[in-house]
Amino acid sequence: MRAVFLVLGLAMASGAVCAQDISQQALSKCKGVSEVAEQIMRQRQSGVKMSDLMDKVSQGREVNPILAGMVTGAYQKSAFSTDEYRDKAASEYRDKYYTACIGMLNK
Question: Which residues touch 35 (CB under 8 Å, ≥6 apart)?
Answer without folding.
Answer: 94
